[in-house]
Every structure is written in structure tokens, then in C-alpha cells.
Amino acid sequence: MPEPPYRALRIFLRVFSLLAVAGGLLMIFAGKPLIVRIFLRPPEGEVPTLLLSLLKEMGGMVLMLSVLLWLASRNPVRNVAIVDGLIAGLCILAVTPLLSLWMTDIRSIYPAYFLWGRSAVRLALAALLYWLRPRHVHWEPIGNF
């Protein structure tokens, strides 16, 4: 019995991978003026050099994630752990902005409805990925048994 091709999941993972490449390269090569523009023009003191340095390191992590997603898109059934990790990561990323909204005074810099909207979109993407993920893997022994 042939396995289902999971075409939608493959396309979804490849699109995520390409978006991660674009975001990672933007994080690595963007200068301070572009970062200030992306963060909706906060006061100049809110974007220190340490934040820019950490942003560049996170760009490397995002590029690593994009490679994992690209490789998982080639065979999602075999790499279901990467898909599950992406689902868990999206759920965590949906909660963390709401925690920062509750624990810090970010409302003065960033509108709260953007944070709620981003969290809702991330949860919706996680639900879509959960719906698309491979449900069961047919186990076969290695070798000629």
C-alpha cells in the first residue's frame, strides 16, 4: 500500500524554510536603522548594541532552523520529529509575547493587539501543521527478515 505523499505538508515546510532563510539573513545583515524601522521606530535608547549583537546570533539559529525544515520537507514521514518540534516551537512562541505583555511595559512601545494577533496566527499555524503531520509510521525491520 503506497504512503500518502503529504504534498501540502512538504510545500508548507518549504515555504517556512524560505521565510526562515529570509528572516535569518535579514537578522544577520541588517543595520541599526533598518532594525529600528522594523521595530516600529522605538526610542533610540531602546535598541542597544547588545540587542543588535543578539539579533545577529539569533539569525544564525534561524538559518539552522531553515536547513532543518528544508531537509524535513523532503521526507516528512521520516522526519516527523522535526515537524513536531516546529509545532511545539510555534506554541511556545505564541505564549511568550503574551508573557512579555504581562510582565513588562511593552505596550508603550508596541501595540498590544499586534502581540495578540501574532499569537493567534502562530497557534493557527501550529494547528494546521498538527492537522497535516503524518499520523502513523509503518514500522519495518532493517534487513531481510
Please outline what is shown here.
The chain is mainly α and 145 residues long.
Structure description:
There is one protein chain. The chain is mainly α and 145 residues long. The chain has one domain. It is elongated and about 65 Å long. The mean pLDDT is 84.
According to DSSP, the number of beta strands is 0
Structural class: mainly alpha
Let me know the largest β-sheet: none
Helix content: 55-70%
Observed structural traits:
elongated; mainly alpha; 5 helices; 70% helix; single chain
Spell out the blueprint of helices and strands.
Layout: H1 7-29, H2 32-38, H3 49-74, H4 80-103, H5 112-132
Helix pairs in contact: 1-3, 4-5
